[in-house]
Amino acid sequence: MTFRPKFVTFDCYGTLTDFDMAGATRRIYGTLLDEARMAQLVRHFAAYRLDEVLGAWKPYAEVVANALERACRNNGVAFRPEDARRIYEEVPSWGPHPDVPAGLARVAEEIPLVILSNAMNSQIASNVAKLGAPVFKVLTAEDVGSYKPRMKGFEAMLDALGCGPEEVTHVSSSFRYDLMTAYDLGIRSKVWVNRGHEPANPFYEYREIRDISGLPAVFGL
User: Fold this and answer.
1) What is the dihedral of CA 149, 152, 158, 160, to 10 degrees?
2) CB atoms near residue 60 (< 10 Å)
3) Does the keyword Hydrolase apply (predicted)?
4) What is the pLDDT, as a whole number, of residue 133?
């Protein structure tokens, strides 16, 4: 029998929104570095962003600035605070992956959609408005005082929804930010959107889809 959750919960950036941190970084440093060094800077910037969110909550502008400064230092690139601010301020302008609006809207006809995002409230509203589907509830790291992959945000989300982990399906393109934590918290129904960010890891017991156009079929829609 096809599982029909009370809510479908989502990561937003990367999974739904085309999270163009790599493009933003290239737009600033692309003329200064050859391709090999540019690719390494992008990888390090992503790794340091993950490291920055593992501690106590701080505004996402600080996460971006600290991570970029560390990545620049590691790669022998001059860091300027205004570059970090420019990247941070791009975030609300980013829209969804092309596959998102139609698939998301189809699911929303039958099941309420919820977003748990590592975002500031001032950022996320613009990104959610571009998704092309009604979202029942949005919770940000700013709301809950914690970033994923820490558990606090997931716990706050379940409390806000008044349901248990067995009653939701969580959808993400990231194991490290979302699906590992969801697994540890007992969210049995998980969907991995394989956008090429990370390799498959079947240990975490998920349904794999190529993009959001495949999500309605997960629920028999």
Assistant:
1) -130
2) 22
3) yes
4) 97
Per residue in 113-171, pLDDT tens?
999 999 999 999 999 999 999 999 999 999 999 999 999 999 999 999 999 999 999 99
Query: What does residue 31 show for φ and ψ, rounded to 5 degrees?
Result: -85, -10
Query: How would you class 72 by CB atoms within 10 Å of its CB: exposed for 0-12, middle for 13-18, buried for 19 or more?
Result: buried
Number of neighbours of residue 104 by Cβ within 10 angstroms: 24
Evaluated on CA atoms 46, 50, 51, 56, the torsion sign reads: positive
The Cα–Cα gap between 155 and 179 comes to: 14
Contact 60, 85 (CB under 8 A): no
**Whole-angstrom Cα distance, residue 49 to residue 80?**
17
